[in-house]
Amino acid sequence: MLLCLALPATAAEVDFARDVRPILNAHCTACHGGVKEAGEVSFIYRDKALGKGESGKTVIVPGDPDGSEMMRRILSDDPDEVMPKPEHGPPLPGHEIAILKQWIKEGAEWGEHWSFVPPEKHPAPETRTADWPRHDLDHFVLARLESEKLPPSPQADPASLLRRVSLDLTGLPPSLTDLERFAADPSDAAYAREVDRLLASPRFGERWASVWMDLARYADSEGLGVDGRREVWKYRDWLIDAFNRDLPYDRFTIDQLAGDLVPDASLEQKIATSFHRLSQSNDEGGTDDEEFRVAAVIDRVNTTWEVWQGVSMGCVQCHSHPYDPIEHEDYYTFMAFFNQTADADLGEELPKLRVPHDKARYAEANELQQAIVDAEQALHERRLEIDRGTRWHPAGIAKAEGKRASLTVVRQDGHDEYRADSNVASGAIYTLTLTPPAELTQLTALRLEFLPLDEASAAHTPEWGAILKRFRLELRRPDGDDQPIELAEIVADEAHPFFDPNGSLKGSNRGWGTYSKTFGPRHATVVLREPLPLAPGSRLVATIENGPTILASFPMVSKRGRLSLTDEPAWISHRSEPGVAALRDELANARKRLQAIPSTSVPVLRERDPRFARETRIFERGNWLEKGELVRPGTPALLPPLEIGEQPPRLAMARWIASAENPLTARVAVNRFWLELFGTGLVATPEDFGSAGEPPSHPQLLDTLAVRFATEMRWSMKSLLREIVTSATYRQSAVVRPDLAERDPSNRLLARGPRQRLSAEMVRDHALAASGLIAHRDGGPPVHPPIPAGVWKPFVAGDRWKTPAEGEPDRYRRSVHTYWKRSIPYPLFSTFDAPTRELCSKRRIVSNTPLQALTLLNDAAFHECARALAARMSSEESADLRRQLSHGYRLATSRQASPERIGDLVGLFEATRDRYRSDPGLSKQLGASPEEAALTVTASILLNLDEALTR
Amino acid sequence: MNLFQHLRTESLRHLSRRHFLRDCGTGLGGLWLASQGLASGAGKLSISHDPSNPLGTLAPSFAPRAKRVIYLHMVGAPSQLELFDYKPSLAKFDGRDCPSEYLEGQRFAFIQGVPKMLGPQFDFKQHGESGAWVSDRLPELAKHVDKLCFIKTMQTDQFNHGPAQLLVHTGNQNLGYASMGSWITWGLGTENQNLPGFMVLLSGGRQPRVGASLWGSGFLPSVYQGVQCRSAGDPILNTANPAGVDRRIRRAALDSLKQLNERTYADFGDPETVTRIAQYEMAFRMQVSVPEVMSIKDEPAPIHELYGTEPGKESFANNCLLARRLAENGVRFIQLFDWGWDSHGSNKGEAINHGFKNKCRSIDRPVAALLTDLEQRGMLEDTLVVWGGEFGRTPMQENRGGGERNAFVGRDHNPNAFTLWMAGAGVKPGFTYGETDEMGYLVGRDPVHVRDFHATLLKLFGFDHRQLSFPFQGLDQKLTGVKPARVVEDLLT
């Protein structure tokens, strides 16, 4: 039986969160909780539990167990009365009834679940053994062991320890030089130096980036329907770099959630926001961009909570949390933080950020991009100013003709509107004959408005948008002659449209418009080259060419719109103002210089213009098509309040998460690092810190480390890791003593050191490192190492997997650089338990399967490693077989081979060599000589050893 | 000491990590879970595998009617209106505007404006004693209608391929959930320890678009994911030794490895080491059994004739024969995907009057052969065969971009009603359940949602769908999801 990690107090006062909540969750909340409130009874909040149920009887009367309906029903022997109902569960055991009774008697005090209460730093407990602990954290571990009467284990031997800490910190085994050095001086000071060396290695960031990439659901493809390639590797490089320069966890958090909104954001901070653009997108024909935009926003909410708060919010999308005090509405108030970004499941993955290949040019590119944004903004403001002084005259529509559409003219709010029937095809052309009002004697500009059919519902559930492929204007004189009017420019109603609106002057499938969905009325201002005198009775003819079909099925056509006219001279004259001309030059110049920097791009977060904010509403039962009440951005009431103030809301939320006052953030982070190093977190359910998750095995240790991480260590991840790996707890031998196998098989009490199988990335990197093939680099585009034939069958035919030839460095890069496609996982990685990274994954469940054995024995890439290791064994050592085998064993396991093991290996080598001698045909397929072939087989076995797969 | 005996006792005493999460009797999670079933006996099942033998056979909750399943998925969604759901009234409406009540409130993938109705494109006849209607596209299968149990009123929530395929196979339209094959293999293990319990065969030239997620294990341990077999190269990745390594050398190498790993176990006492030794032994056995079972070369000529198989080629016919061989060898869940059924009429291959006819031809004989072959071997008794797609097709002609009829006839996606049939273990032969409306567009009576189908499937394997669950992301995940599902008892013998 497992050790009981959370012993309930018996004699002492009853603690609600520790003693009572578990009983309620176990027996009651399934029917009387956040999902269901059977009989109008719920045990989530105290006021409700102390209220009256449907029956009118008071559920709990503080101080009076006998007067509480709850106790009466629990104790009832009437099968129609007793709780839980017999078909739902067994009656409560006696000791639980006693706890409930005592609790009600003591006043039925409520208490918050431990993880929602801010952590406190605890003094290190006294221990009987004084010389074992090295750090405070060891005192907590040892105190617990002493209370269980279990001694800790001695320190691991130097080779095992250096192997463990090297693989844990850098994902790579120690080199033989490292092993020699540490074997010669295994002192504490020497160990500390090794740890510092590993933390300073550029390989450190690569290892920890791999961990974070599971949480970030990082992939080089977009997922869902088509799963095409997605250029996003600069985020991965940012991540590696962030770990290497020990970016404090609070800034690391803020940059990923809202780096774009931080004042004077660097290019790195903007790249970091790619984190939430790693959600999936869908380019399958016939899919609704809004449905998948919403799905991405929902994923961002869930991922944010799972990564930083260790709370599953997924269930709250449809109903209140079943166990924890988080309301259905809280989901949507939190969703409001993410609902205003400009991305919208567009095929182009907009908005994207141009990122120079060369990191040295980041600052330059950022300045140029800022110059572009500033110039666009300044131009936009000048035009807004003109717009405010403009009198727009509604244009009457005398006639509306449609090609590939039939149009009607409707008068609404004193303004003629054209409306197209629902069956309008892409590329439809509207010819509108406009009647200018009599008082207008000249025309300088025209305003074209695209309107949704239903403005109220479009504000939260948008309609398909429209693209103005081309706009033309002609003057029809009273004599009936048409004269084309020269147009100067088209000005959008926002400062930074995705596409140049002037594309619509010459014909473009991505000119001005409301691509691909529209949340409300939008307009463009069409400016004439010269003022146009309007004789009385003249007519204007406006031609609107509609856009193409997108996603194989949705025509980008305007179904409703109207036009207005003005004689405001500033629309034309402002174009020659010196300030405006200078801005244009600046813009053109900055764009040109930016274009000249060799770059890639990443999709990033960017806020929409607040004037066009989307409404965020509750989804009834989680259905995005059934919108309920309007909500404002906010955080659940059970956590410390958030003051948004003047900050952009998303930035305020990011700072709220990254604050030392947030009770969950530091605990969840500390637990995650602990999980990576020990195989199990102090909280065994990193995905659930709520009341349905496991309580921590060492609550005071977790809280103390969490507080210190956020304060003394200033969120330094390297400091936290240094503290843990230099502890006596971590340095213990991993030998499973017989007493421990019995008492604590999963090592929750930490009476021994961790012994973990290598992660998927490590399995490959380790074999490459042991065989000497590994080729390091710092960042760069994804690589395509050997993949078994027939695996790569992408949905998009042109998507190729090109493996570099033997000897090319890109064949032997670390696994973190391997191209990651969601629908075609790299076989080795999925065989060794890597997730597909479609969604945030909080931990990998380690499996042990025959397919792993087949991969390591037979996969061509591993076979290449075995050949290389054999070559290394014979080239780096003298001709003495035993020395070669011992060299290989050490390369593969970091340990010295015992004589018995050398004996086993010699036996294998000789038997194999003899077999190859007797079958030269077979031998030739593997090596130049029977000895070489036999050494390759032996090397392969070395790479398959349990010890070679373990850290 | 015998390591395996040792491990067995060890494993009885220890709980695997997975098991720990689920059944831990301590802590709040454990208590909550306990309340959900273990303690009460009414809630969820306790499924625990010996860690050294995670595919070992387990008994279900009650007597199963099916021991294994061969699931034939026609990827892209075949038109029920051209195969099984005969609608003479639809013929009368052919070419007329679609009635407006069909368009209001419906979402379509590709239809725009007011489309025209499209009558059945092929002739139908009644067959067998059951009198089931089958079109002239499936003449061979039509001879077997008295074995088939049709559901004419399958319904789904999803009308795009990716999410709809996921819903059929994992019970959820999002990625990351466990597939039916994983659930069943997790719940029951498998009967042949030399082969994976859940195997996947592909044909049609392309993978389904969401790929391996359709046979993924999601939150269940990865050992229960489907193992994809390949038509070229090793039938399962890495079953062949590298060149220059024969079976004798491999045996010698593995003996040595075992010896070395036993020394490691003696040093560290880690039970994972013992599990690893066992997995290498199973790998060695699989290297022989997989190529053997996956080679159809030695099947007698009449069998090749029956199925229309050509060894060495990637074809649906070959996969049907392989499916029978895998079933015969105790594989629990055999999943076939055949790509190319998305008959929009947007090009020749996707046209009902062209590509669709070829697809029908490519499956007719093999499916009929599979039924014949299973029956003659007495295997239809305990083998369930399922045939279906991810949704149905509209009775309206598709008019992409709002245009008129063109040379290629096609239908759009219809999540409201589609046909699926089952045959064999535990289902009524020669039986039809449910009826669509006059046009074959909506359900007339007796709808069967995908989750009802899942509940029924689990029942056939001896499980109550409400009990087979796994905790993940704060929920007890079930194949049937969170909405209520019903077992369609009428389908069962």
Keywords:
heterodimer; A: 951 residues; alpha+beta; Jelly Rolls; 7-stranded antiparallel sheet; 33 helices; 20 strands; globular; disordered N terminus; B: 493 residues; alpha/beta; Alkaline Phosphatase, subunit A; 9-stranded mixed sheet; two-stranded antiparallel ribbon; 13 helices
Distance between the termini of chain B: 50 Å
Rg value of chain A: 34 Å
Q: Name the average pLDDT of chain B.
A: 86
Mean pLDDT of chain A: 93
* Distinct helical segment count of chain A: 33
Number of strands of chain A: 20
Element order, helices and strands of chain B? HHHEHEEHEHHEEHHHHEHEEEEEEEEHEE
Note the overall shape of chain B. globular
Chain-wise SSE layout:
The complex is a heterodimer of chains A (951) and B (493).
Chain A: H1 16-27, H2 46-49, H3 69-75, H4 94-105, H5 136-147, H6 158-170, H7 176-184, H8 188-200, H9 202-215, H10 233-244, H11 249-258, H12 267-272, H13 289-309, H14 328-338, E1 352-356, H15 362-388, E2 393-394, E3 396-403, E4 407-412, E5 415-420, E6 429-435, E7 442-450, H16 455-458, E8 463-464, E9 468-476, E10 482-484, E11 487-492, H17 503-506, E12 517-518, E13 522-533, E14 539-546, E15 549-550, E16 554-555, E17 560-566, H18 570-573, H19 578-595, E18 599-603, E19 617-619, E20 627-630, H20 649-657, H21 665-678, H22 699-710, H23 717-725, H24 728-731, H25 738-743, H26 760-770, H27 827-831, H28 850-858, H29 860-876, H30 881-893, H31 899-918, H32 920-924, H33 930-944
Antiparallel strand pairs in A: 1-18, 2-17, 3-6, 4-5, 5-17, 6-14, 7-13, 7-17, 8-12, 9-10, 9-14, 11-13, 15-16, 19-20
Helix pairs in contact in A: 1-4, 6-7, 6-8, 9-10, 11-20, 13-14, 15-19, 21-22, 21-23, 26-29, 28-29, 29-30, 29-33, 30-33, 31-33
Chain B: H1 3-13, H2 17-23, H3 27-38, E1 68-75, H4 88-93, E2 124-127, E3 132-135, H5 139-142, E4 148-155, H6 161-170, H7 180-188, E5 198-203, E6 227-228, H8 247-268, H9 271-294, H10 301-307, H11 316-328, E7 333-339, H12 355-376, E8 383-388, E9 392-397, E10 411-414, E11 418-424, E12 431-433, E13 435-436, E14 443-445, E15 448-449, H13 450-460, E16 469-472, E17 475-478
